[in-house]
Design the sequence.
């Protein structure tokens, strides 16, 4: 970073601009401790550069002002002086001013306005008073660089429509004058689009109902287009195509008011006059596209159905289906008319190409009919493709393929793939290797000759053609290959192609993959080709073969393809026996229940369960066989009043389940348990006798069992 003293000295005698601009940028340490006098000194030195008579110094000062405009303090203190000096420089520009200097000055003025716009106080004090002068100077210098100044005026129309209102008609007349000039056809497409888009934004300066002005302008353009299409009726028999007549009647006519477009003059004896017709159609279609694509600050209703009718009407005028009139007999005149029709079709395709990106799913109802019209644009020779015409009109075919891809991409699956057969064949035809016509004709003449050589020297170049014919092939341009790749990429992911066409597509993909193998050494594969290869693997169609090995050899580090090459399944779960888990759970439950049962057993032994036990009425000793029967669970369930047998049964169960039970210190219950289990009942009648004994209505009472007694 340069210190402030060095910057001031450099502004006095400028030599290199980059270090100065980098040191003055926003956030630089220079601004952290700059004083007020130093700031005034910096601004005055910069303004002195802009007042120099040397153009380089003025250009140097303009670029420094552009950097200083990011500083709020400088613009708040000296903004009015800076803007005034810039407007003086713009006023001094003339036809001898260099384009670099002029563009730098205009960009600096726009940057200063952008830095002020949005700040209420600065906008009120600096920008609003100077806006009329800025717009007026832009219109005054309009002839210096029309396309550039129109692009710079568009933001002022959107941001300041009220201030721009007095200049709206003047700008509109200048734009229309440029559009209707003969030189407009030589402008690049980007410049043409700028003029058309800016003209559509002028509707925002209307004081009342700008949306109505927008709609009326659009319908007037559509009516003018309909009138222009009827001129082709002077050369072609529209009466032979009833559908075309219906289409033209559905398109609204222009109003009876005076049109902004002058009438066309076409002389049948002057072939060059025919090209004014497609030029007028191109202007109208570009203007319609500008009205549809340019952003507006108001809500506008778009007649999408009429727009679709306009495109359909232009594409339906085709000399393949509509014959020429008898008056048109000259073959050269017919060929010129065919060429003008193709130019008109190209303009309509330009409008059709942008519609999917604007209206999306609203175009789906018109998609099938549009694709049918696009298929008719492919040159045919009887029932087969005219490959020579397809190759000769390579750019037009690429535009058709782009429109097809844009419309098919609106849906996730397109069912009617039979209508795409011609389009696929045409796409494959323009990417095939070609040989020049001169070499092919020379080769044919050589083969048809009788072997007589007039001169030995004449056969030298022909020998190269015969032995190394591949060196004379014309390579397909990269742009054409990209168009076809994009078209194929959309088709294989949205439609199931017929077997023959799918094989052609796969062959094309494999050839492109092999051609791209040299990119492996460079480490990069084009993104579009990468997507095409991946989609070709993901959508194999009805074929049993796969190009996965070839694609994997090229895209080795692709994560998606690595899943197909080395499938990674989820980790295998270990099988666990449920029985073991249940046994462990039972053991845990038993271990938790053992202390409780031990406490219950201790209470039973010590006679502490007085609350749960039912005291018997008598203390008679029960016979031995009766005591054994009480331990059976079935007998216990019969008498709900007796709870003592249930307690003894649970105690027995808890003790018998343990292999080596740990006896409590004062627990002496195991002895009566062993005595009760000593005799075994093997007869089934024992259980029956037990039930009969319990069901007997005798006066037998349950004696109290004294577990504390010592049998020994």
Sequence:
């Amino acid at each position: 970073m340069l210190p402030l003293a060095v910057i001031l000295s450099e502004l006095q005698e400028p030599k290199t601009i980059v270090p100065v601009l980098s040191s003055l940028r926003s956030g630089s340490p220079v601004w952290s401790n700059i004083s007020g006098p130093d700031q005034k000194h910096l601004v005055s030195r910069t303004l002195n550069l802009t007042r120099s008579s040397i153009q380089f110094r003025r250009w140097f000062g303009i670029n420094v002002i552009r950097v200083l405009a990011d500083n709020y303090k400088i613009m708040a203190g000296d903004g009015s002086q800076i803007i005034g000096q810039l407007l003086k420089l713009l006023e001094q520009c003339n036809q001898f001013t260099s384009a670099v200097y002029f563009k730098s000055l205009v960009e600096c003025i726009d940057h200063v306005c952008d830095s002020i716009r949005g700040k209420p106080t600065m906008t009120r004090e600096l920008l609003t008073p100077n806006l009329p002068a800025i717009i007026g100077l832009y219109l005054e210098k309009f002839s210096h660089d029309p396309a550039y100044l129109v692009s710079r005026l568009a933001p002022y129309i959107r941001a300041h429509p009220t201030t721009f209102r007095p200049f709206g008609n003047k700008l509109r007349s200048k734009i229309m004058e440029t559009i209707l000039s003969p030189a407009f056809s030589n402008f690049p497409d980007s410049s043409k689009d700028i003029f058309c888009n800016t003209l559509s934004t002028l509707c925002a300066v209307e004081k009342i109902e700008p949306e109505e002005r927008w709609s009326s302008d659009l319908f007037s353009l559509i009516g003018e287009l309909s009138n222009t299409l009827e001129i082709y009726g002077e050369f072609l028999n529209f009466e032979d195509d009833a559908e075309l007549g219906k289409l033209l009647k559905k398109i609204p006519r222009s109003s009876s008011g005076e049109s902004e477009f002058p009438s066309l003059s076409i002389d049948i004896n002057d072939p060059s006059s025919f090209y004014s017709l497609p030029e007028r159609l191109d202007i109208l279609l570009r203007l319609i596209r500008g009205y549809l694509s340019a952003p507006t600050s108001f809500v506008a209703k778009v007649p999408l159905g009429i727009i679709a009718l306009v495109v359909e009407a232009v594409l339906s005028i085709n000399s393949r289906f509509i014959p020429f009139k008898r008056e048109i007999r000259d073959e050269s005149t017919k060929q010129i008319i065919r060429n003008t029709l193709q130019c008109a079709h190209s303009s309509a395709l330009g409008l059709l190409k942008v519609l999917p990106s604007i209206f999306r799913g609203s175009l789906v109802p018109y998609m099938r009919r549009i694709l049918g019209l696009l298929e008719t644009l492919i040159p045919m020779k009887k029932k087969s493709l005219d490959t020579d015409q397809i190759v000769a009109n390579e750019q037009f075919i690429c535009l058709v393929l782009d429109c097809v891809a844009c419309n098919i991409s609106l849906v996730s699956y397109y069912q009617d793939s039979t209508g795409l057969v011609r389009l696929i064949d045409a796409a494959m035809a323009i990417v095939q290797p070609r040989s020049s016509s001169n070499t092919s004709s020379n080769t044919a003449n050589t083969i048809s000759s009788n072997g007589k050589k007039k001169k030995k020297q004449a056969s030298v170049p022909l020998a190269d053609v015969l032995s190394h014919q591949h060196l004379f092939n014309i390579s397909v341009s990269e742009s054409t290959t990209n168009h076809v790749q994009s078209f194929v990429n959309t088709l294989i992911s949205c439609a199931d192609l017929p077997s023959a066409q799918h094989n052609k597509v796969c062959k094309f993909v494999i050839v492109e993959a092999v051609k791209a193998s040299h990119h492996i050494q460079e480490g990069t594969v084009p993104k579009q080709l990468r997507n095409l290869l991946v989609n070709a693997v993901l959508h194999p169609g009805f074929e049993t073969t796969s190009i996965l090995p070839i694609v994997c050899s090229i895209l080795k580090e692709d994560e998606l393809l690595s899943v197909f090459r080395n499938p990674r399944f989820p980790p295998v779960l270990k099988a666990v026996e449920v029985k073991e888990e249940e046994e462990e759970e039972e053991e845990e439950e038993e271990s938790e229940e053992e202390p409780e049962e031990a406490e219950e057993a201790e209470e039973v032994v010590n006679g502490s369960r007085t609350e749960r036990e039912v005291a018997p009425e008598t203390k008679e000793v029960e016979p031995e066989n009766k005591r054994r029967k009480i331990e059976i669970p079935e007998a216990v369930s019969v008498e709900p009043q007796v709870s003592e047998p249930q307690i003894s049964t649970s105690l027995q169960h808890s003790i018998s389940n343990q292999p080596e039970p740990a006896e409590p210190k004062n627990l002496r219950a195991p002895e009566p348990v062993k005595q009760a289990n000593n005799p075994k009942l093997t007869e089934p009648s024992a259980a029956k006798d037990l039930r009969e004994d319990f069901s007997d209505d005798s006066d037998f009472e349950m004696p109290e069992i004294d577990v504390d007694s010592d049998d020994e």
In short: Strands lie at 380-381, 384-385, 434-435, 473-474.
